[in-house]
# Entry
Amino acid sequence: MERPLRRFLVLGLDGGTFDLLDPLMEAGELPFLRSLVHRGVRAPLRSVYPAKTIPAWYSFATGRDPGELGIFGFTEPSGGPGHSRLVQSFRPAEAIWDRLSRVGVKVGILNFPLRAGYPLHGFVVPGMFSDDGTTYPKEVRAEIQGSIGESYPGELPIYREAERAEWVARAARVVSQRAQAAAALAERHTPDFLFALFRETDRVEHQHWNELSQPIGKIPADLLDFWRTVDRACGEVDRAFRSGGGPAVTLVISDHGHGAIESDFLTNRWLADQNYLVFREGAELARRRFLSRFLLQAQRLGFARRVSRRLADFVRDGRRARMAEMLAGPTSFEQVAQRIDWRRTVAFSYPVPEGIYLNPHNPDLTAARRAEILREIRARLERYPEAHIEVFGPKDLYRGGRLDLSPALFIRVNGMGTEPRMDFSYPEPFIRDRPEYFYGSGTHRMDGIFIGAGDGVVPSFRTAPLSLLDVAPTILEGMGVSPPNDLSGQSFASELGVLA
# Structure
């Protein structure tokens, strides 16, 4: 096709939230993002549930909800009980850039969670999930190395408190490198649609939300510098993209929001207490439970608190998995699964932490019994005295289509201020005083960010949320390409001011 009506740049800030960006913009710390807000549209962007990176970004890319994609988390069941694999792809659904490419629009994709680049009219630089970083075309890898002086960066390493300064500095450096690569590719290839994702924003928020949520004057200097780097990165990519000429729109979006994590709900601990999940006789979990009790008690003592952090780091270090299991007992669901009596177990939570699955290996679970169990679990969770637990069936959340991989029930605890976990080993299901050694102080929220500015965009300040599912059809219509009729999302191109 001829050049589209408008070129679209989409910058993804993983976990972006106005709860953080608004005060930073008002204080003048994010001048580029602030300029977009002042001359464009600002609105909350409602995510899908679970509001997690993979189902959310895949839903954005396709305009289809997790139930249509069959994707509800980072992993999906595979094989027998206690086995899973990383989500393979959003296929057979089609991403927005696939549709644009098919009609002759040149596209560029940078750092989207894909296993590898694949042929389309443009370029693909895969991000999270990438096995070997294979780009399309292959020459793009060399172009990136020439622009940033080294290989395209991968995901940040696991956070350790003792390495805080180096880790935050590395996060900022990676953001700069991604921006340099995106800008160089935009200038060299002049795509009419460009998507570039910064995953580091979410990682930093998870670890340091308690510091980021303070008044501006109390936020540590390295975290302020990180967000200044993010703002400069967005501006750098925007300038490079617009150098290609023609009418253009810039969108800054997130896959979900972010907020404080206040407590934890251990779903499998609760299921075991309710006798829905049953261990084999003689199953050895005593070491793990002893360690967990020790770590909880250690929070009250200064010296022991420091020891507990180091011990928790050791247990979580994947390089020492065998030694950690000898010391602490089983540390993952996969290890504990070997100790579960699967013929007697009725329900469990794995591999989606927000999900409860019925056990397909229990011979007594007839269709009628399954329905009865689900009603019973729902009622007990909704009556749980320690927390407000919302319970949803898949059809409460999704249009459906590929619900065979879905949990039988989903839970949302205390408006997502409490994080569901798949742990067994603590004394009670609900941990009100969250241990410091649990990594991070932030967790996801439903409302992310939508900022849009450019040619044709009508400035507005919205308080009612837009939907993440609506972004793909909006972009297609804004570029003069008809979206498929069967998408979950609905275009708001007319309201944005970019309808042809």
